[in-house]
Specification:
about 250 residues; single chain; 2 domains; Helix Hairpins; about 0% strand; rod-shaped; mainly alpha
Length: about 250
Amino acid sequence: MSVFKRISRLFKSYLNAWISKAEDPEKILEQVVIDMRQQLRDAQQRVASAIADEKRLQKQMMEAEKQSASWEKKAMRAVQLDNDDLAREALKRKAQYDELASEYRKQWGLQKAAVEHLKTSLHELNQKIEEAARQKEILIARKKRAEAQKMIQDTMVGMSDNSAFETLERMSKRVDGMEAEAEAYNEVSAEIKEQTLEERFRQLEDEQPAEQDEALAALKARMNAVETQQNKETVKQAELEKIPVLQED
């Protein structure tokens, strides 16, 4: 069985394993491409070996042709020396190399044709593997899209349960209650602040008369002190005026 048929069977076996075992298609496809490329490298080595065999057969053919030409020259030299027996032996050896060269030429032609066929097959195989790699990416994308769609459908099925909406409704009412409590707290705080401000103004008004009374009492005290001082000075002046003035002799 050729390496190319083995690669084809390998690809089909992986696909069958994926379908039958329901394994992760992404992992299966990744491994398929990895194995196919490994098989491609093996095929390339086999083709390289076939090319080496072709070159070896060509070289052997050329060497046999060279030996045939050499023995022909030797036969001609023997004829020139009038040595027919030696010429016959040389021609006999030439015939052997001609036969060998003919066989090598035949094998070389077959090997060359086989190499060309292998090269073509290898090129086609490489294209198929590249196509398989592209198909792998497409299949993986389809798999992920299918998984996403399934997840969305599962989510939608789960949302069809009334318990989720009941929970949302309950939470909405709870938030409404919290907002109402916050508004009430703000109103109470504003009233308390207003009352506190009014109380401060009342205290200020209550404190002002007391301060004015104290100022008035202080003013009266100062006025009384001034009046008393003036009275004292008046009395003193009057007493001074009653004292007689002494005249000098």
